Amino acid sequence: MRLEAITWERLTDATADRIAGLTAADGGPWLRVAVDGAPAAPTAELARDLSEALRIRGRPVLVVGSAGFWRPASLRYEYGKRDPDAYYDRWLDIGALWREVFDPLDPGAGGTGRVLPDLWDPVTDRATRSPYAELPRGGVLLLHGALLLGHWFPFDLSVHLRLSPAALARRTAEDDHWTLPAFARYEDEVGPGETADVVVRMDDPRHPAWHRPEP
């Protein structure tokens, strides 16, 4: 994979331009974009910057963090609090994301644009009770978080913030090193560096490099 050095500002602008020029694969009025990466990668920050850039370009945006769709602790920790396979397979409530985020943006399912931005607070381990958000026609969903690819989510564009295994271990808090086998499994089973539309190598976050296949 050929990588090109780039600044975060240029990367944000170029990616926003590409998103703004996209047509949804299902022909619907909404776009769905993933910003995928381990917790050590700044997925939330990039999603925020992209949302600002897209609004400047006249596109309504809804930013959703996947951690708001983790399952309750009783289900996440069924096999212990540090089980990497449970982290990989069970923490993210895939069914809830389909039901509350993707189906409302599916014209074939009678999509209304009414998206639930979060369902569960993993810190308090309680339902968030957030109100639904209306994403107008022509709007863009930006879903950010870890382990987002490989679930058949209908993304129109996916961005993967990539860390080498050594960089991921170095930048992951020691208490969270138990998650590293899950990301190794993600590399083996999903290959996000090969399947994402845009790959950003950020072993040194001050000097990112990216691979951007032409649309």
UniProtKB/TrEMBL annotation:
Keywords: Kinase, Transferase. The keyword Kinase applies. It comes from the Bacteria. GO terms for molecular function: kinase activity. This is Uridine kinase.
